[in-house]
From TrEMBL:
Protein name according to UniProt: Transcriptional regulator
Pfam families associated with the record: HTH_11, WYL
Residue ranges constituting the WYL domain according to the UniProt record: 193-256
Ranges that cross the membrane: none
Signal peptide boundaries: none
Every Helix-turn-helix type domain range: 59-112
InterPro entries: CBASS_pafABC_assoc_protein (IPR051534), HTH_11 (IPR013196), WH-like_DNA-bd_sf (IPR036388), WH_DNA-bd_sf (IPR036390), WYL_dom (IPR026881)
Source organism superkingdom: Bacteria
Gene3D superfamilies per the UniProt record, alphabetical: Winged helix-like DNA-binding domain superfamily/Winged helix DNA-binding domain
Length: 286
């Protein structure tokens, strides 16, 4: 579950102009290739690209969080540095939030402060959807690494904060629990799990020490693209440079995992497509 995506989706709907529509097939590429020759405003063209809108909505959320954490006015330059953007972008984002109802006081050269009381529009979930989200977060809290478990708990807490009292109570008192049978204990602690998740997300090559069924350890360079969680153990799906093929690695046999920041040459969605075509969602172990 990704908290920022849920909230960003709600904010993006409000930021979208009624006139904004998805361009016809190939139109976006044509705008990029011929924009300069045709005199197309690239900033306006970006408004038609949903990915850019999602990034902007996430940026607005981060700005709100930064302002909520301040009781005194904070300089625009300091906010821009904290958020990793330019002053021009910051001023534009502040104007957007003000237009959406955020009571942001201040001006350039003086600083900005957000008066209490501004919340994002409530995310419209049914009770069934809220129970599904709560159950999923509870399962993650028991099965995943501590970093991801805490992220799931924060996600549910932030969603609950935007809901009316009756729906918030449905989350807090949900009777759907995630537990593990005695014969399927939770995954053992694995400090490399956050490294793996980031490697999958950033499409990085990972160096791995892996023990086979007999305990023999080998050095691998893998291109991870998925991890499945089963009762009591996890399975990593990756392209293995040593074998020159797709392989599955049991998480409980990983001795060490490191990320040097090297990006592998294939995009993750293409690896998944090739993996499914080659193995039928299966694959060979180690």
């Amino acid at each position: 579950m990704c908290l920022d995506r849920l909230a960003a989706a709600s904010l993006a709907i409000r930021c979208r102009s009624a006139a904004t529509r998805w361009p016809a097939a190939g139109a976006w590429q044509a705008q990029r290739e011929g924009g300069r020759r045709a005199g197309i405003d690239r900033n306006k063209a970006k408004a038609h690209y949903p990915g850019a809108m999602a990034i902007r909505a996430t940026r607005l959320l981060h700005l709100l969080d930064a302002l909520r954490g301040r009781r005194r006015p904070v300089a625009g330059a300091q906010l821009a540095t904290t958020l990793g953007g330019s002053l021009r972008t910051l001023y534009r984002d502040i104007a957007t939030l003000r237009a959406q109802g955020a009571d942001i006081l201040g001006d350039p050269g003086v600083g900005y402060v957000l008066r209490p009381g501004f919340l994002l529009p409530a995310l419209n979930f049914s009770e069934d959807e809220l129970e599904a989200l709560t159950l999923g977060a509870r399962w993650v809290a028991r099965q995943a690494d501590p970093e991801l478990a805490q992220a799931a708990q924060r996600a549910v807490a932030r969603i609950a904060a935007t809901l009316p009292g009756t729906l918030r109570l449905a989350i807090e008192t949900s009777g759907l629990l995630a537990s593990n049978p005695k014969h399927t204990p939770p995954l053992p602690p694995a400090p490399w799990l956050p490294v793996l998740r980031r490697g999958i997300r950033l499409e990085h090559v990972l160096r791995m020490e892996y023990a086979d069924a007999g305990g023999k350890v080998s050095q691998r360079r893998i291109w991870p693209f998925a991890m499945a969680f089963f009762g009591g153990y996890g399975m990593i799906a990756a392209w293995c440079e040593l074998r020159g093929d797709f392989r599955h690695f049991r998480a409980d046999r990983v001795v060490a995992l490191a990320d040097d920041g090297e990006r592998h040459p294939s995009r993750r969605h293409l690896l998944i497509k090739r993996w499914r075509a080659a193995t039928g969602d299966g694959g060979s172990d180690c």
